[in-house]
Design goal:
Blueprint lengths: L1 H52 L2 E6 L5 E2 L3 H6 L8 H4 L8 H17 L3 E6 L6 E8 L10 E7 L1 H30 L4 E4 L5 E4 L1 H6 L5 H7 L12 H11 L3 E9 L2 E11 L5 E7 L1 H23 L3 E5 L5 E4 L1 H7 L3 H4 L5 H10 L9 H9 L8 E6 L5 E8 L5 E7 L1 H23 L3 E5 L5 E4 L1 H7 L3 H5 L4 H8 L8 H15 L3 E6 L5 E8 L5 E7 L1 H51 L7 H32 L7 E4 H18 L3 E6 L5 E4 L1 H18 L5 E8 L3 E8 L6 H5 L20 H11 L3 E7 L3 E9 L18
Parallel strand pairs: 22-24
Antiparallel strand pairs: 1-2, 1-5, 3-4, 4-5, 6-7, 6-10, 8-9, 9-10, 11-12, 11-15, 13-14, 14-15, 16-17, 16-20, 18-19, 19-20, 21-23, 24-25, 25-27, 26-27
Helix pairs in contact: 17-18, 19-20, 20-24, 21-22, 22-24
């Protein structure tokens, strides 16, 4: 019993233990399920909250048409409550317009049967709300087969934005089409480069500029408008523009239609996706601008050279240009004008220099002048300055709002006008006081002006002349007062020739009363003719007397010439005898003479020789004046002639210790002439120099020549001659020398001139007191015979 009980107890204990374990497991499992249930409830509440705050409202339509949806859907549909079935939603009371109801019913049926999703925008009836409904078949976890889940979105704002975007899109599309048409019709080349910077769009102007057939050819072949841009290919320059992301403007040369033109190229990066560009032909603009700059520079250069003062002010009333006359006229300093002062400040500077008229209210006067800038017409004023200067001021408003001022100094003109009036009065008084009769005839032959002497000569009334008679009528009426009436027609014709041919005419008329007048018809610059009459009655009588006296003097001169000639020949006979007997005495034919007698004989011979030379000189001078001086014509080597003459000067030169320098150039050559006469002329010149220079003086004999003439120059460093002595140097028998020359006959230089002029040459004298004298003998070559080929040219030295 005891053992059985133990077993039972063991078994019972085991069962109790199992029962206890099962209870503990059941308790733990219940607690776990409870915790899961609470978590699921929290998740469901959270999802419900999310659905309530979501922008879309879910709607579940079961296969039987029953609808499950949150209550806020009724507010979106404008209903009191959510429809319970699809038939209510798509019915008249479902809150949707009729067109939307039918379309939505078809979409739901298609989703139930075909399992296709859909999206449709519907309007809420009675409001402006737009709903977007997206539908799809519901999963098996939501509904049985045939269920549909709908998501309803409030797309009111989105639809409005879409409508706005569509409207903007249409406007942009229209604008793009208009812009494309404008670009295509634009006269300037335009292009677009894609991301790879290749040409992808060009207009017709671009195609024409590169002389291509079509835009497709340009894009396909990549024909560039510019060869290089800043020394780089166009694509490289475009890359630089794209990387910088800035609008680039360049002036680039291009060849258009075979002509080199300057283009203004503009490239605009478009959002990093490409570059749009266009080019404007600036060649004409640049040429016009350069031409304008040149014209402005030329105009300012011209204005700067004007004697009138010019100042120009810009639109801001600041000084922009002035010329040198402006600075000089108003005594302004250039540094005061370099900062371009304003108009008022320039007037102040001019006032400080006393170069504007004095006014009591200067600010008001200056303010009035400021109105020149806005004047519609040019202004002109006359300013009288304190120093007596008269200025003419011309103010020209400029189209750009500036002002051009021109100041003309009319002081001299006014003075000249006053002087002219004075001269007119003086002329009238002078005309009336002249001894000559003066009449001025107009181009039509009428008498215009006359003086009282003219009226007195013709003895006519003032009224006759005041009627301004024509020359024809006047001379016809005066014909009976002339010694020979036909001379009236001569005077008339000469006056007509003077006014028509503009040539001066002269003549002489004799009146019936014996008066004689010389007249002259002189053309005047204004087309008139001046008629002058001079009473030469007394002069004519004196002329006759002088003519008679001149004839008597000419006859006396002939007698003098004949006397001198005969006297020269008569003096030679006893002089020859004296010289011959003196030479015989010196030679001892009469016996040996003492030394004293020898000196006397030598003196007699010297005096005879000198007297013989003087007689020859007088004879030659007389023959020269009479034109009967005999000349031999033969080639004369001037260098040889000079050296031959030099021995004759040696004694006189050594006596006064004179330095004689002879410099005869080879170009002196030969002349056709009388060697004896030319030697004598040269002797006279050198003798003149020897007598002039003091002891230890210097004489230079220089010779040179040209193709048609040769010259010999004798110069000295003597005391020279004053103007009075030079005037008498070539007058025969005058004391024209210096020192010893004053005691001579005065025939040296006159005879030298006659001998030179007899050869067709010229003798000139240049002298200054204290500077010496220079005599130049210029001789023509004449008809020289040709030199033999084997001959040599002989020169001369010291």
């Amino acid at each position: 019993m005891i053992q059985v009980s133990v077993m039972v107890m063991v078994i019972a204990g085991a069962i109790l233990a199992c029962w206890l374990g099962a209870g503990i497991w059941a308790l733990a499992t219940g607690l776990k399920l409870r915790r899961q249930s609470l978590f699921q409830r929290e998740q469901a509440d959270r999802l419900a909250g999310l659905l309530q705050s979501a922008p879309a409202i879910p709607m579940l339509i079961r296969a039987d048409g029953h609808i499950e949806a949150p209550g806020r859907l009724a507010n979106w549909l404008g209903l009191d409550k959510v429809p319970g079935f699809v038939s209510e939603l798509t019915g008249e009371g479902g809150g949707l317009p009729e067109a939307d109801r039918d379309a939505l019913a078809e979409d739901i049926v298609a989703a139930q049967r075909g399992g296709k999703g859909f999206a449709r925008a519907v309007s809420a009836q009675g409001s402006s709300r737009t709903l977007l409904i997206r539908g799809a078949p519901a999963g098996p976890d939501l509904a049985n087969m045939g269920g549909v889940i709908l998501w309803v979105f409030d797309a009111t704002e989105s639809q409005q934005r879409i409508a706005e975007l569509e409207s903007e899109g249409r406007l942009l599309r229209d604008a793009l089409e208009a812009l494309s048409g404008l670009i295509e019709a634009a006269p300037l080349p335009m292009w677009y480069r894609d991301r790879d910077l290749r040409l992808s769009l060009v207009n017709s102007a671009y195609v024409q500029a590169v002389e291509a057939e079509s835009a497709a050819q340009v894009i396909e072949q990549g024909i560039e408008l510019f060869e290089a841009i800043d020394g780089q290919p166009p694509r490289h320059a475009a890359r630089f523009t794209l990387d910088r992301g800035e609008i680039m403007i360049r002036i680039v040369p291009a060849t258009l239609h075979g002509e080199r033109r300057m283009m203004r190229m503009v490239e605009v990066p478009i959002g990093g996706h490409g570059i749009a560009g266009y080019a404007i032909d600036r060649q004409d603009f640049e040429s016009a601008r350069a031409e304008q700059a040149r014209l402005v520079a030329t105009q300012r250069d011209m204005l700067d050279k004007l004697s009138a003062a010019v100042a120009q002010f810009g639109p801001d009333r600041s000084l922009s240009f002035w010329n040198q006359a402006f600075i000089s006229l108003f005594a302004l300093q250039p540094e005061h004008l370099m900062d371009h002062p304003e108009f008022e400040r320039v007037l102040d500077r001019m006032r400080e220099g006393g170069r504007i008229p004095e006014h009591r209210d200067f600010p008001a006067w200056r303010s009035e002048r400021r109105g020149w800038f806005i004047a519609t017409e040019p202004k002109e004023e006359n300013w009288l300055l304190a120093d007596g200067t008269h200025l003419r001021v011309f103010a020209q408003p400029m189209p750009d709002g500036g002002l051009l001022l021109i100041f003309e100094d009319r002081t001299e003109q006014i003075q000249l006008s006053s002087a002219r009036d004075t001269l007119l009065r003086v002329r009238t008084a002078t005309f009336d006081s002249l001894f000559e009769g003066i009449g001025v005839f107009a181009a039509d032959g009428k008498l215009h002006l006359w003086n009282q002497r003219f009226r007195t000569i013709w003895n006519v009334d003032e009224a006759v002349l005041a009627a301004h008679p024509r020359i024809d009528d006047f001379m016809n009426s005066m014909a009976d007062r002339l010694a020979r009436p036909p001379q009236a027609g001569l005077v008339r014709e000469l006056m007509r020739s003077c006014t028509v041919d503009r040539k001066q005419r002269n003549g002489r008329v004799v009146f019936a009363d014996g008066r004689t007048f010389d007249f002259a018809a002189i053309p005047l610059p204004d087309g008139n003719a001046l008629f002058t009459m001079l009473d030469v009655t007394d002069s004519r009588r004196i002329e006759e007397v002088l003519r008679e006296q001149n004839e008597a003097l000419a006859e006396a001169d002939k007698v003098k010439t004949a006397f001198l000639t005969n006297m020269s020949y008569d003096l030679r006979t006893p002089l020859t005898s004296i010289g011959g007997f003196a030479e015989m005495l010196k030679a001892g034919y009469a016996g040996e003479l003492p030394s004293t007698a020898q000196d006397y004989v030598s003196a007699i011979l010297d005096s005879a020789t000198r007297l013989s030379g003087m007689i020859d000189t007088v004879l030659e001078a007389t023959q020269g004046e009479a034109g009967t001086l005999p000349l031999e014509r033969a080639p004369v080597d001037l260098a040889e002639m000079v050296h031959a003459c030099r021995d004759r000067w040696r004694e006189a030169v050594e006596e006064k210790q004179i330095e004689l320098v002879v410099d005869v150039k080879p170009s002196t050559g030969r002349v056709m002439g009388d060697a004896k006469r030319l030697s004598k002329a040269l002797d006279r010149l050198v003798d003149n120099a020897i007598r002039a220079v003091p002891e230890g003086g210097r004489i230079l004999l220089h010779g040179d020549g040209q193709v048609k003439s040769a010259r010999l120059i004798v110069s000295d460093n003597g005391p020279g001659m004053d103007a009075r002595t030079q005037a008498r140097a070539f007058t025969p028998f005058s004391t024209n020398g210096h020192g010893a020359r004053g005691a001579s006959l005065g025939l040296g230089l006159p005879l030298a001139r006659q001998l030179v002029e007899a050869h067709g040459g010229k003798l000139t004298l240049v002298s200054e007191p204290g500077e010496g004298t220079m005599l130049t003998m210029e001789l023509p070559r004449g008809d020289l015979p040709r030199m033999p080929l084997s001959g040599t040219v002989r020169g001369a030295g010291q």
